[in-house]
Write a sequence for this structure.
């Protein structure tokens, strides 16, 4: 197997790195997170229209580039290098694959071209702040009640009295880009306790009965929101209630894990490069601070290095702790025998 990158993949990395070097510096990032959207809309349009980033892994029939998750991961490695705030993760990595996997032909044709060209952003809203569990990153999402407790919690769905469409009630916290996305994919219970099951529903935003509040988050480059649904009209994702929601979420989670790993590699490289440059240039007592042994091991908060620390910590809170991710991955791969019902390998601490 040839693991080398193709010329096209190298070109994606080079072009994106050059663009972000000009428009994704620390000053631009700080300004972007303070906008109502939480990102720079003009830069997002350039990334979508000139580079086709949100459509990299979408089929050409829907306006995408027809590439794979590899190209998407390479793109996220470069956005991670600068901690670029953008809807790329929420839209292209989490939401679009679910629409492609579960949507009807009409839903795919109506939504995916708009996500591919960047005119529609989307967010996955999971009740209870249980994104890691829903995506099967820390446990088997079929074996645990990741979406709440039926009537007692989460988001509830019932068919409209008119006989068509659905109405949603409840709320979801820590929804990535949930305050600004033009489309919400909401996980909701249907069927009634104790036979309820969780399905995904489409809620265009804004909508009547939909309240979205941007939350204060540790990592400003990952804007989070509380989504409240109060008798809000919704459309079932898919043609009926037989879709394999858990399977689609787990498949999306596997891709998301790879993309997040690539993004973390980019962030680590960016942090290292900026740290080295800083300690070479910053002077104290007439000497570069990098020449002082104590400073070689730590920085001051005036440098943007702390933003990289916050990104790593915030990702762990949103997508699961590292030791649980490794343990579940090892169990799924069968490295240490069987897997317990909660998705952990027997007697293993990885």
């Amino acid at each position: 197997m040839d693991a080398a990158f193709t010329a096209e993949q190298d070109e994606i990395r080079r072009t994106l790195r050059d663009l972000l070097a000009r428009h994704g510096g620390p000053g631009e990032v700080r300004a972007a997170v303070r906008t109502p959207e939480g990102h720079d809309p003009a830069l997002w349009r350039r990334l979508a229209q000139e580079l086709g980033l949100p459509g990299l892994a979408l089929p050409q029939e829907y306006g995408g580039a027809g590439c794979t998750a590899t190209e998407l991961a390479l793109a996220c490695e470069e956005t991670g290098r600068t901690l670029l705030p953008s809807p790329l993760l929420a839209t292209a990595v989490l939401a679009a694959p679910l629409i492609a996997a579960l949507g009807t032909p009409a839903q795919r044709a109506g939504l995916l071209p708009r996500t591919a060209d960047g005119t529609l952003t989307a967010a996955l809203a999971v009740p209870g702040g249980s994104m890691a569990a829903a995506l099967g990153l820390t446990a088997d999402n079929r074996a645990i009640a990741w979406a709440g407790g039926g009537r007692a919690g989460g988001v509830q769905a019932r068919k409209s009295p008119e006989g068509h469409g659905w109405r949603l009630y409840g709320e979801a916290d820590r929804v990535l880009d949930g305050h600004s996305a033009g489309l919400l994919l909401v996980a909701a219970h249907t069927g009634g306790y104790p036979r309820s099951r969780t399905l995904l529903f489409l809620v265009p935003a804004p909508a009547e009965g939909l309240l979205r509040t941007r939350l204060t988050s540790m990592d400003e480059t990952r804007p989070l929101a509380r989504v409240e649904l109060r008798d809000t009209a919704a459309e079932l994702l898919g043609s009926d209630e037989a879709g394999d929601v858990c399977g689609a979420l787990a498949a999306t989670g596997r891709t998301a894990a790879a993309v997040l790993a690539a993004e973390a590699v980019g962030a680590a490289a960016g942090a290292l490069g900026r740290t080295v440059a800083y300690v070479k240039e910053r002077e104290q007592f007439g000497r570069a601070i990098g020449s002082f042994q104590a400073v070689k091991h730590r920085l001051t908060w005036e440098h943007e290095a702390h933003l990289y620390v916050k990104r790593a910590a915030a990702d762990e809170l949103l997508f699961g702790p590292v030791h649980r991710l490794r343990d579940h991955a090892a169990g799924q791969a069968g490295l240490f025998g069987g897997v317990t019902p909660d998705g952990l390998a027997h007697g293993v601490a990885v």
Observations:
- The first strand starts at residue 122 and ends at 125.
- The radius of gyration is 21 Å.
- The chain has a mean pLDDT of 87.
- The longest helix spans residues 245-281.
